[in-house]
Design goal:
The relative contact order is 0.15. The chain is built from four helices and no strands. It starts with a helix and ends in a 28-residue tail after the last helix. α1 packs antiparallel against α2 and α1 runs antiparallel to α4. With 145 residues, it is mainly alpha-helical.
Length: 145
């Protein structure tokens, strides 16, 4: 997940400050958007007991959709405030830079998660199969139910 998050950061800042082909940068974004969910969603099975897995996925989906709605509204306000349009493409720079800042924040948190998972209190996310203490879940059960 940290690798996908790291791949997400550069395209936003390079879109604003360089003449690198947007096709290459969009490819980087597409790869990052494929890698992060491919790691994040299956990791839930390591953290949540099987009896609560459906609720966990529902809560994740709800939070994701609220985030999409809030970001659409917030970025729309930012775009309107900077008068972004086809005749003023530089008006998009604040939107792109704020997405880059959020991507940077996402990378920081994914790095912190990676670092904590390498310590003694890990949840087993770095392992191919979860450890006994890695399936503690919300209620604190140990191992499969």
């Amino acid at each position: 997940m940290a690798a996908g998050s790291a791949l997400l950061v550069p395209p936003f800042f390079l879109l604003v400050g360089t003449s690198i082909s947007p096709t290459i940068l969009m490819g980087m974004l597409g790869l990052a958007f494929a890698l992060v969910p491919a790691v994040l969603w299956p990791a839930v099975t390591y953290l949540v007991p099987e009896a609560r897995l459906g609720s966990a996925y529902a809560l994740m989906t709800f939070c994701q959709q609220v985030g999409w709605a809030g970001m659409s509204w917030g970025l729309g306000l930012l775009k309107d405030g900077s008068h972004a349009s086809a005749t003023n493409p530089a008006g998009w720079n604040p939107v792109i830079l704020s997405l880059g800042a959020l991507a940077t924040l996402g990378f920081v948190f994914s790095f912190l998660l990676w670092r904590s998972e390498r310590g003694p209190k890990s949840h087993g996310l770095e392992a191919v199969t979860p450890t006994a203490h890695g399936n503690a879940g919300i209620a604190g059960e140990i191992g499969p139910p």
